Amino acid sequence: MWIRKRRGWELKESALTPESVFGNRRRFLAGAAGAIFAPALLACEKKAAAEGDATPDPSTGLYPVQRNPRYALDRDMTAEGDATSYNNYYEFGTSKDVVAAAQALPIRPWAITIDGMVGKPQTIAIDDLLKQMPLEERAYRHRCVEAWSMAVPWSGFPLSALVALAEPQAGAKFVRFESFMNTQAAPGQTDPLYPWPYVEGLTLAEATNELAFIATGIYGKPLPKQNGAPFRLAVPWKYGFKSAKGIQRITFTDIEPTGLWQLLQSSEYGFYANVNPAFPHPRWSQESERLLGSGERVPTQIFNGYGEFVAGLYPDLNDRNYFY
């Protein structure tokens, strides 16, 4: 009898958590001031959410796309409601519940600027770009630096396809991702503590690795705004803050980009940020992770279980610079 041996990163299909719980209500200010202003704030958020939902996404007809079986899971898929209502997106607030607030972000028109050390600099509308890309679905683990995790089916295309479109010059060594800047829609961007817009980066070798993925959909639908619509990065062997959301500019460069979190606290957030249980965050352990939805804690794997694909990119697995 032929027995299929799972690769280290694969998750069993039973681990994709049931699709059920959606949308926790946002928590509002407590105390007397909260009692006075919360009803008005609720009304505004409901209005923003309704207006956002009322605008049809022109890419809806592209989904669902065919799943690539090479990227399977050995744990249950996270419930859609959990994955789309528990989000870090500081542009819209420091709470995990930014669903209503994120609906204020307009995602059409939306264009991606490709510039820097490339043979084909260009600015291309998102829907024109999608027509040129080989869309597929990949079930990936996602591991947050805060030690929670989920397993979700992203739709989109390999980042390597976009790199090929750009035709990077010989001296290009890094890819810099810059997210939108819109203080009218994203009130968090008015906070002077954060060096907006959000920036992240990869080496060119990482960007052309087969796992690096541009996500434009999830659960067989276009990405919700709170999950980074309409264009985000998914690099599953790295901590989640590396997967920039709402990207509008991609720059090829010979200078290592400095990410927003790295700029804020370089002793806690590095450039590579590869998952490794052996290297704790300065303020908490990374040895285990909490599965979103079930709350179960499971051991964390080096490179989030994707070592067979990416370990060769990093010559010294004992070098902490690769793992924070």
Report on this structure.
The chain has 324 residues and is α+β, with helices and mostly antiparallel strands. It has one domain (56-322): Sulfite Oxidase, Chain A, domain 2, CATH 3.90.420. Helix content is 19%, strand content 20%. It has 8 helices and 12 strands. Strands 3, 4, 7, 8, 9, 11 and 12 form a 7-stranded mixed beta sheet that branches. It has a 5-stranded mixed beta sheet with strand order 2-1-10-5-6. A hairpin with a 5-residue loop joins strand 1 (111-116) and strand 2. It starts with 30 loop residues before the first helix and ends in a 14-residue tail after the last helix. Mean pLDDT is 88; it is low at 1-53.
Compressed to H and E, one letter per element, the order equals HHHEEHEEHEEHEEEEHEEH
Fill in the CATH topology. Sulfite Oxidase, Chain A, domain 2
The count of strands amounts to 12
**CATH class assignment:** Alpha Beta
Kindly give the count of domains.
Answer: 1
Task: Sketch the major β-sheet.
Answer: 7 strands, mixed
Residues in helix, %: 10-25%
Helix count equals 8
**Large-scale geometry:** globular
Mean pLDDT: 88
Low-pLDDT stretches are 1-53
**Cα gyration radius (Å):** 19 Å
Please give the CATH architecture. Answer: Alpha-Beta Complex
Helix-strand category: alpha+beta
In brief:
By secondary structure, the chain is an alpha+beta fold.
Characteristic terms for this protein:
single chain, 324 residues, alpha+beta, Sulfite Oxidase, Chain A, domain 2, 7-stranded mixed beta sheet, 8 helices, 12 strands, 19% helix
